[in-house]
Specification:
10-stranded antiparallel sheet; 1294 residues; TIM Barrel; Beta-galactosidase, Chain A, domain 5; 5 domains; 87 strands; mainly beta; single chain; Jelly Rolls; globular
Length: 1294
């Protein structure tokens, strides 16, 4: 090998210096920051031979090759123990997926601790790579320092197969390996531990790993790399091949080598290649017995790994983040405005004596959660208080120990987002579909263009630094795109949390699905690796439960997933989180089953079946009771005491304190209960079951004043102060804390009761909306009036359940009443909430708000809403029973033309039909979507009202406008007196009808039909109610409902029923029912039908046989019914209507099932898809049908339990299909398929798993009128059960 004289001399000198260093240096092995154990005095280590240059540190001598930057061996300088590295030359390097011959361009340039190489590629003139090996302490680093390429060949990706960074063999005493992948399946482990012996089988192909540790009886080694796959697939998905390992046989031994996975130097489409720290590197750390347990194994390598591993920014704060919670805003409801969240942060801090909080704001932008992604900045939730209130929350929350994150989405975008464009998204790829249909972002373009970083930078620039974390939702990607996303956000100072535990694993601090124990299934929870948890237990909260380590958990009280129980929330802190966080304060050093040793003198174990902790020999946790020290130095700090069962217990305490003050913790802070003095080094404590306490040496510091309502015009708007000190009170008034720990003001007793305070600091002449949540005791009446600034609104009865899942009060009858007023010249007004005397009904009040806004008014209107200035909620409308207590699919839509309007990408109707905002219901759940209440739209008994609005409706037969009343008795459900079908209206139309108020508290609203077509939208604006004066005809008190089959067969009689319920005070006789049919249809009987007498509260049903014409077109039709009767000399009538469809025509030739219209379909998740697999909740958002690696262009994508019903009219003989679990579920999901013909089962598959190939299905359907395609879960629940009917085809005669 030829070297220029200068380089040759320099290399020779360096080699001599390195060899001299190896011979001269001796002494103990130096312990590193992770606690690597020191060893005995070093013996002289022989210098490597002339063919093996040596580089060295005080701890290691490293023999390196001349032909390629590869380590040949690592020798511990303390005792001569050795590990091998590469045992075979590297002759080819893979560039851009193609292997090329490689050779060193000259000998390496050596210094005492490094070797530098230049690599050339004979087949690629002008392409060169500079690389180096360097040893520092116990770490040896391989690093690419420069890449020179050409216009003809640009280097993109780099792989070096077989480039063993370290290896162990059967000839090495005690050789063992420990490998793992990132796997969130809590029912198994991804860890693979193995001894390397002569019996170890050779592996034909390399195996991927996310973490790799090898060991012998004397040394252990761990590896780390900035490996990043440009386009990961197969084994490299889920970061599953950061490293490759392979067992190889030779004549003398079996050896397992470990090398780095792919590096990306220039990602596809990247404007610039990597540079600096972004260039490829890999590290190996070698250690002897690091935990001083007398053995060397994988745990020693795991300890050493902490010195080289990529560590998530912010992980040092993880042990102190004890309390995670999610203030949730959704669908314009603003149930948790930012300054209310500030009060919740204070309440948590007071109740825990200042434990650290991680508050994840879901819904900080636009109209709340899942709205206007990815407008990270510049589009804040104005109904929650906007940017100003958000920053107040962030700044003040820091003082109470809270750090904040926001929920963002870098995967999907919604058309209302200001940043939405056809450049940002692929409009052919729909994503999540709840409030709106989203579309998948072109993530590569987004990162390469700098747009992603720009959007996040806007958020960073506009918000206080205490907004420190980004919760990046629904992020599916791994590899270079994900890594560059992390680089972009971390460069701006963001910490990261994720939905799933294996995403952004080297950056994420918290995983939602791992912590939310009721969210997702057991196969997608925390990381299941003991290896990873050993290394990183205290760095992040992404784990499954363990008998000693436990786990942190998310139990919320702010409406996320409908959870509202403060008591459950706080119990979770004391029972799960605090013990887990106590252990996170220290690092694991030894893990032997259920016996773990930590730094700091801490040990965790299981004794007599109970979890037990010791600190420096003192027992600090015993099962469900503990006295845990909680101070940074663990000396002389406070101690938390908790005893789930309650009672007396004794605990050893640290020496030094003469006495401890004992305080019970309440949501108003510490309350002293006792002083205890150590006796024999122990204190004896008496605890109430489930009551947390804190102990301070001597006494506690002064407690911060809460200042409830800080930043708002109202002091203590949530009645959190136990003494209600901010409110003047009259009558019987007290703070009420219910069984779930929710606070409110309770007004009771028969006399007038009220709370009041003077509001100051308002802007003179400005308009404001004042509101409060009010609940009058169910079944009773008590006028309760909110008055402010000369305006008032009264709630007399509470008949409507709160069904907004995001509301703290869901499941009760709290509803918001509001009034708009103008601030006087002095900016000061009295605010009063008064329950009238004369009733003993209890009234509860909560969440008093005053916000600046100026909603439009309309002369002569009882109510008018254009949705341009709604303070929170849906203007005059309250959520009904649609979907039950859930997150609704209705919100105030924002204009972003053309993307939110009809015509773009096939949109059927506009999202906004007037001004900049309209009320949109998107593919809503069936049931009452929303309705008015007497305090939002007052209607007097005996008066007529014109109800009108502008609207668009995407489909006929989807929605109905409803009129009804709540009984003044307060008993029974609401009564619906009229349902008016709303037809398809794809340009803006005008709806108007007259409502006669009576029979109770009259209301009006929108209902979604149970048989509505998928994807049906309804948009409303300019809602107006006008009082027309006394009605000419009294309201009929009762209901009329028309029921019919979902589909009617032309030419055959089909039964239709009308049921009349009498809600009058007297019996009704002589009533007659009339049916209105489409032209050409017939009914039997044809004439009006006389009804039997109907008692008060009774009901009767009349039936007709309806026959559509044989040639009736396949489309929706309206059937109307009327019941007329006289009562008290006055004529009254009820009308009702329903929409039916005729059957689709039967097939007349062989037909794909996906090309036929079905008569009905039910599905376990979202809609059944045609020619796509089951996706999310929208139509057309699935991926291609794929079972066992085979793609099907035709078929159905469903999710168990599912049933799809077809009308065949006896014309078909068989159904064939290839069925199975879609490949989108790589390892989870079990489904059983069956086919029913006219109700008789014709075929049933075995239970098919995600890993199974498609099962060929044939069903005999000869002569059947109806056939049902059924997919059931495999008996283990329906999680992940994506059921495909590939190539489903009916074989039919003409």
């Amino acid at each position: 090998m030829f070297l220029p004289p200068s380089r040759r001399i320099r290399a020779a000198c360096a080699l001599a210096a390195a060899s001299a260093t190896v011979l001269a240096l001796s002494g103990p092995a130096l312990a590193d920051a992770a606690g690597l154990a020191t060893g005995p005095a070093a013996a002289p280590v022989p210098a490597a031979g002339p063919a093996a240059p040596v580089i060295a540190s005080a701890q290691l001598s490293v023999a390196v090759a001349e032909d390629f930057p590869r380590v040949l061996s690592y020798t511990d300088r303390a005792d001569g123990a050795r590990l091998l590295g590469s045992t075979a030359p590297v002759t080819r390097v893979v560039l851009n997926g193609t292997p090329y011959a490689v050779q060193a361009k000259g000998a390496p340039v050596l210094t005492a601790s490094s070797a530098a190489y230049t690599l050339a590629f004979p087949e690629l003139p002008g392409v060169e790579i500079d690389a180096s090996l360097r040893v520092e302490g116990r770490t040896t680093t391989f690093r690419v320092t420069a890449v020179r390429d050409t216009d003809a060949f640009r280097v993109g990706t780099l792989d070096i197969p077989g480039h063993d960074l370290v290896s162990v063999g059967s000839a090495d005493g005690g050789a063992a390996t420990a490998f793992t992948r990132l796997d969130p399946d809590s029912t198994r482990t991804a860890d693979v531990f193995a001894q390397v012996t002569d019996a170890t089988a050779a592996e034909a192909n390399p195996v991927g790993a996310s973490y790799a540790i090898v060991s012998t009886g004397r040394l252990a080694a761990a590896v780390e790399s900035n490996s990043s796959y440009d386009k990961p697939a197969g084994a490299s998905a889920r970061d599953g091949a950061r490293f490759w390992h392979q067992a190889r046989k030779s004549d003398t031994e079996t050896r397992v080598g470990v090398w780095s996975g792919q590096w990306t130097y220039r990602g596809a489409g990247a404007p610039q290649p990597e540079s600096g720290d972004g260039l490829p590197w890999a590290k190996v750390v070698v250690t002897p017995d690091a935990n001083a347990d007398g053995a060397t194994d994988w745990q020693d390598g795991a300890i050493a790994f902490r010195t080289i591993g990529i560590k998530a920014p912010g992980s040092e704060q993880t042990p102190d983040r004890v309390v995670a919670h999610i203030p949730f805003n959704f669908a314009s409801q603003a149930t948790h405005p930012f300054l209310r969240t500030l009060d919740d942060v204070k309440r948590i801090s007071l109740a825990t004596d200042g434990l650290g909080q991680f508050a994840l704001l879901k819904g900080y932008g636009s109209e709340g959660h899942d709205s206007a992604h990815p407008d990270y900045g510049g589009n804040y939730n104005k109904r929650a208080g906007g940017l100003a209130d958000l920053n107040t929350l962030l700044k003040e929350g820091r003082k109470w120990g809270a750090g904040f994150g926001v929920h963002v989405n870098a995967t999907e975008s919604y058309p209302e987002a200001k940043n939405f464009s056809e450049t940002l998204v692929d409009k052919t790829k729909p994503g999540w579909n709840w409030l709106n249909q989203s579309y998948y972002i072109d993530q590569r373009r987004d990162i390469n263009s700098g747009d992603l970083a720009r959007r996040f930078q806007q958020l960073r620039d506009e918000t206080d630094p205490n907004l420190s974390a980004l919760y990046i939702d629904v992020y599916y990607t791994h590899g270079w795109i994900a890594d560059k996303t992390m680089q972009a956000v971390q460069a701006q100072g963001w910490n990261v949390a994720t939905e799933w535990s294996e995403k952004f694993e080297r950056a994420s601090l918290w995983s939602h699905w791992a912590n939310d124990l009721d969210y997702g299934g057991a196969t997608n929870k925390g990381l299941n690796s003991q290896i990873v948890r050993f290394i990183r237990n205290g760095e992040k909260d992404v784990w499954n439960n363990h008998p000693v380590l436990g786990q942190t958990a998310l139990v919320d009280f702010e409406g996320w997933t409908g959870e509202t129980d403060w008591n459950d929330f706080t119990a979770n802190i004391w029972q799960r989180n605090l013990p887990a966080k106590y252990l996170q304060q220290q690092k694991i050093t030894r893990w032997n089953g259920n016996d773990l040793t930590f730094t700091g003198g801490v040990r965790g174990t299981v004794e007599h079946g109970s979890r037990t902790f010791y600190e420096n020999g003192r027992k600090v946790l015993d099962g469900d009771a503990y006295l845990l020290p909680w101070a940074a130095d663990r000396k002389g700090g406070k101690l938390y005491h908790y005893n789930k069962a309650g009672g007396t217990s004794s605990w050893a305490v640290p020496a030094g304190a003469r006495s401890y003050s004992v305080y019970k913790l309440t949501d108003n802070g510490r309350v002293k209960t006792a002083t205890v003095r150590p006796v024999g080094g122990k204190v004896t404590l008496d605890a109430v079951a489930g009551q947390p306490y804190v102990l301070y040496p001597d006494r506690a510091p002064a407690q911060r004043a809460a200042k409830w309502g800080q930043g708002t015009p109202v002091k203590d708007p949530g009645f959190n102060d136990a003494g209600l000190g901010a409110w003047a009170r009259a009558g019987t008034v007290a703070r009420d804390t219910d069984a779930q720990g929710r606070n409110s003001a309770k007004l009771s007793g028969a006399a007038t009761a009220s709370v009041r305070q003077r509001i100051t600091g308002l802007t003179p002449g400005a308009r404001y909306t004042a509101s409060a949540l009010v609940e009058v005791e169910a079944g009773k009446a008590r006028p309760t009036t909110l008055s402010v600034g000369g305006k008032a609104v009264t709630v007399e009865r509470s008949a409507l359940d709160d069904r907004v899942a995001a509301s703290d009060w869901n499941g009760t009858r709290f509803q918001r009443a509001k009034v708009t007023f103008t601030a006087p010249a002095d900016g000061s007004v009295p605010l009063r909430i008064e329950a009238a005397g004369g009733s003993t009904a209890t009234v509860r009040v909560d969440d008093v708000r005053i916000v600046a806004n100026a909603p439009a008014t309309k002369d002569g209107a009882v109510a008018y809403e254009d949705f341009e200035a709604v303070d929170q909620g849906w203007g005059p409308f309250l959520k009904g029973d649609s979907g039950g207590t859930t997150d609704p699919r209705t919100h105030i839509a924002q204009l972003h033309a053309p993307y939110t309007q009809a015509g773009w990408n096939g949109k059927a109707i506009d999202d906004v039909i007037g001004g900049a905002e309209s009320l949109k219901s998107h593919d809503e759940n069936s049931g009452l979507v929303y309705r008015t209440a007497p305090w939002t739209v007052p209607m007097k008994d005996g008066h007529s009202y014109r109800v009108e609005y502008d609207y668009q409706s995407s489909h006929a037969g989807a929605y109905e406008w409803v009129t009804g009343y709540d009984r003044t008795s307060g008993t029974g459900p609401a009564v619906e007196t009229r349902r008016t079908p709303i037809g398809q209206q794809r340009t803006t139309g005008h709806f108007a009808e007259t409502v006669t108020a009576g029979c109770g508290d009259t209301w009006t609203g929108l209902r979604k039909r149970g048989d509505a077509p998928d994807g049906a939208d309804f948009v409303l604006d300019s809602f107006t109610v006008t009082d027309l004066g006394p009605a000419a005809e009294r309201a009929a008190c009762g209901t009329l409902a028309v029921t019919a089959p979902e589909t009617l067969e032309p030419g055959r009689a089909n039964e239709v029923r009308a049921t009349f319920t009498n809600d009058e005070a007297a019996a009704i006789t002589g009533a007659r029912a009339t049916l209105t049919l489409p032209e050409g249809w017939s009914a039997e009987p044809a004439a009006p039908v006389a009804l039997d007498p109907v008692a008060a509260g009774g009901a009767t049903t009349v039936a007709w046989r309806i026959t559509p014409p044989v040639d009736a077109a396949y489309r929706p039709y309206t059937l109307g019914a009327e019941v007329a009767y006289d009562l008290g000399g006055a004529a009254r009538k009820l009308t009702a209507a329903t929409t039916v469809r005729t059957l689709p025509p039967p097939p007349t030739a062989d037909s794909w099932a996906s090309d036929l219209d079905w008569t009905s379909a039910t599905n376990g998740w979202g809609p059944v898809e045609r020619d796509l697999s089951n996706g999310e909740t929208g139509t057309g958002d699935g991926s291609p049908l794929r079972i066992g690696g085979v793609t099907y262009a035709k078929g159905l994508g469903s999710h168990a339990p599912a049933k799809v019903r077809y009308y065949l009219g006896g014309r078909c003989t068989s159904l064939t299909a290839e069925v199975g679990v879609d490949d989108v579920q790589t390892s989870r999901g079990t489904v059983r398929f069956s086919v029913l013909a006219d109700g008789t089962e014709k075929v049933k598959s075995p239970v098919l798993k995600a890993t199974d190939a498609a099962w060929s299905l044939t069903a005999d359907v000869t002569g059947a009128s109806y056939v049902e395609l059924v997919a059931d879960d495999g008996g283990d629940g329906n999680g992940n059960d994506h059921a495909d009917w590939g190539n489903a085809r009916f074989h039919c005669a003409p």
